[in-house]
Amino acid sequence: MNPEWRARLRLAVRQNGRKHAAWEAGIAPETLSRVLSGAHARPAFDTVARIVYATGHTLGWLMNDAGYNLSPEQVRQLREASAILAAIAAIAAIAAIAAGPE
Questions:
Q1: In this predicted model, what pLDDT tens digit does every residue of 25-73 receive, in sequence order?
Q2: What is the C-alpha separation between 32 and 100, in angstroms, rounded?
């Protein structure tokens, strides 16, 4: 795991406030402190994810993932392709129901 994740998490929590982050994540402030300080050397993934989401960030941000930079045209094409695939899946499901049990 990227060793910088904990520093990024501390930054996000500092910007949002410890009490707020702990409350939003549904964890005790003491648990948050142990995760941030490293006392929990290997905190549960779910705990880290809840803290990250409570600060308004994503796991990709936490791991410093570059993500995808799509142009508006690429976003439009991706949405169009997604709609086509959803329609195909719906048609396949209807065909399976119409065919009945084998």
A1: 999 999 999 999 999 889 999 999 999 999 999 898 899 887 777 788 8
A2: 53
- The tokens 């991706």 sit on which residue? 78
Both structure tokens of 26: 């549904």
- Residue 62, both tokens: 């936490």
Rounded Cα distance, 5 and 22, in Å: 17
φ and ψ at residue 63, rounded to 5 degrees: -90, 5
Do 51 and 13 form a contact (C-beta atoms < 8 A)?
Answer: yes
Q: Which of 24, 50, 16, 20 is nearest to 35 (CA)?
A: 50
pLDDT one-digit tens code per residue, 9-23: 999 999 999 999 999
In contact, 32 and 13? CB cutoff 8 Å: yes
CB 43 within 8 A of CB 30: no
